[in-house]
């Protein structure tokens, strides 16, 4: 089972959600992201939020179209997106994709990127997607990565204070037993030169970003 969550970030950052329709997908909306889904002809299974970013008319439309609408007070300890992610993780999915979580207010973007650690904690692959980037979080280990013409650039940003024992193979800029710390740009804007590359690190957590031109 795959869960796709759409939040209420600026609509111009959203890819076409129809491109991500597939079997065994449960769509979930968070706040204005619910309305974005309905605009693209997708009726989400669940809707979460205080809905302070929609009009009364839009909220009525949402409640007419969707059976499970969970309305929360605007004053709460979690964002609408975090509430939706918590519900999604309880379903024990194979992976979770997040849309509408970048752009606009930078505090929300930063917080949303940090929410990826919840996937690390529960061993569920979580990924952020927008028109320009695909973002995920990886803990220490060894991984393979395929060359993609659409996303030629790969960057690794330390999430923990230090990431050690980094090896990059099949990349334009290879690394052998390197380390990066907060504030380092050593692993920004790399490219694959082989069809398949590998990256590994011995300790720490990184945010991996694949970007278009």
UniProtKB/TrEMBL annotation:
Gene Ontology BP, a term:
thiamine diphosphate biosynthetic process
Task: Determine if Signal is one of this entry's keywords.
Answer: no
Q: Which UniProt keywords apply?
A: ATP-binding, Kinase, Nucleotide-binding, Transferase
One Pfam match, given by its short name, reads TPK_B1_binding
SMART domains referenced in this protein's UniProt entry, alphabetically: TPK_B1_binding
The UniProt record lists the Thiamin pyrophosphokinase thiamin-binding domain at 141-207
Q: Which SUPFAM superfamilies match?
A: Thiamin pyrophosphokinase, catalytic domain, Thiamin pyrophosphokinase, substrate-binding domain
According to the lineage, what is the superkingdom?
A: Bacteria
What terms describe the molecular function in GO for this protein? ATP binding; kinase activity; thiamine binding; thiamine diphosphokinase activity
EC main class here is transferase
Q: Does the keyword GTP-binding apply?
A: no
Record EC number: 2.7.6.2
Q: What is this protein called?
A: Thiamine diphosphokinase
Naturally occurring in which organism (per UniProt): Priestia taiwanensis
């Amino acid at each position: 089972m795959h869960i796709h969550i759409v939040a209420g970030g600026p609509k111009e950052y959203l890819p076409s959600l129809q491109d991500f329709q597939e079997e065994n997908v449960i769509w979930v909306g968070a706040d204005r992201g619910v309305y974005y889904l309905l605009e693209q002809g997708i009726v989400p299974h669940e809707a979460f939020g205080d809905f302070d970013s929609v009009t009364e008319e839009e909220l009525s439309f949402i409640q007419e179209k969707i059976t499970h609408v969970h309305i929360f007070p605007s004053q709460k300890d979690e964002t609408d997106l975090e509430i939706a992610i918590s519900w999604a993780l309880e379903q024990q999915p194979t992976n979770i994709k997040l849309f509408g979580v970048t752009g606009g207010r930078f505090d929300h973007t930063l917080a949303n990127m940090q929410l990826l650690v919840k996937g690390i904690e529960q061993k569920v692959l979580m990924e952020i997607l927008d028109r320009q980037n695909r973002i995920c979080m990886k803990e220490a280990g060894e991984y393979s990565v395929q060359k993609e013409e659409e996303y030629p650039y790969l960057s690794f940003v330390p999430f923990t204070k230090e990431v050690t024992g980094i090896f990059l193979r099949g990349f334009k800029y290879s690394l052998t037993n390197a380390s990066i710390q907060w504030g380092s740009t050593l692993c920004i804007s790399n490219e694959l030169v082989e069809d398949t590359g590998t990256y590994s690190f011995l300790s720490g957590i990184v945010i991996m970003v694949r970007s278009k031109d």
